[in-house]
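Note to self: keep these together.
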Amino acid sequence: MSSQEFSADSPFAGLEPASVWMHFANLCRIPRASKHEGPLVEFLQQWASAKGLDNFVDAAGNLIIKKPASPGREQVPGIVLQSHLDMVCQKNSATVHDFARDPIHPVRRDNLIVAEDTTLGADNGIGVALILAVLEDDSLVHGPIEALLTVDEEAGMGGAQNLPTDVLHGKYMLNLDTETWGEFYLGCAGGIYVDASRTAAATPLPSGWQAVRIEMAGLRGGHSGINIHEGRGNAIKLLTRVLRNLETRFPLRMASFTGGTAPNALPREASAVIALEPAHLKPLEEALAQWQSLLQHELRGADDGIRLTSALAQADASLAPAEQQVWLQSLHAAPHGVKRMSVAMPGNVETSNNLGMIALQATGGHCNFMVRSTLDSACEALADEIVSLFALSSTSAVKQGYYPGWTPNPASPLLAQCQAVYAQEFGSRADTQVIHAGLECGIIGAKYPALDIVSFGPNIHNPHAPGESVEIDSVAKTWQLLKAILQAVE
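Structure:
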């Protein structure tokens, strides 16, 4: 596909660089949920082979594509270009979209490409598109290039975790998975997941009681690392708080509690089915109206769209009262948000936790946490706190999926070259940052200790949430910078 093949009503029509947007348009058409990247990998292998580029898939499912140096640059140190193929799959509850089959539907809004009711997949599809554009552009000047396109990044970094230690040969690596233009990233937080679960026998509802579904929606959600310090609401924590208060007003039984769809996304929505005596329906409605007003006041400026609604529902059984207490008290006490800001790097989050998912029925269920920290020891300590909390009720809580942080190297020779190129191209010095989100750089760097790594990318807004967008002009700037770095590296 060329830029001329975009229809006049395509959101990508007329955008530059045309090759980058062409590749991103292809990515939007091919479903690529974590652990289901196979069709995309097959498509890209066929594309690379048609271009005469050597390629292979490693034992973890990662795709590696190699491009020889341009003439006269054969002795220049090799560069690894790295991004991940999968995307976070989030949609609004009223949106009909099957991420296993349906394409993403982007639209253009001024300087933004947006997916209005789902995630866009700019994280990290734009990085992949930039790499593919490099691989196919024979006018670029560069040394040997290895494109490392990993899988399963968003659901545990499985591709990077299982990357073999003998497939990469470059000296430098450019990771294209950050979301703020004008900054070079030198480090990131590590992470670990905690999954808590318990089962029990269901209890029949008292005769004559009425089931009601309570729904909390309208929150912004977002990335559990990048947005964790912004004071956005967590639908699971907030609805737990409401349910705990309702228990003090009238007897109720909880039949189900669900919320969130990914451990690395701030929960935007949650719902619970409760049962109560019909005489308490009116007081319930009044209490929910009071809670909506209170939460709107508390979250003003951070989550102005919060809604708390109710509707009659059906239920035959509920959690036993003791089980209900265990779950609501544990969820209420569980940490969420920033644990500690960094002293070494003022203004940066050091340690945080996201209560990302709850799936609870009358017979029990599970919840999931994602802990992040730039200090591996602090990450482990907070995860242990969560395990200890659930141990008080003999609830199973398991730590898994640990990945290390990426330790900054301010003396990086690659950083110095990147800064020099940035100043030459844009007339100023880029900021350097450590990101609280998880990047694959730490894992890959541990497997290839000699790699000198820097990360950068365009402006992406609201990753991991519906309404995710990417700034068009920042993509063009990222392309300009990437080409210039490839040419300048010696």
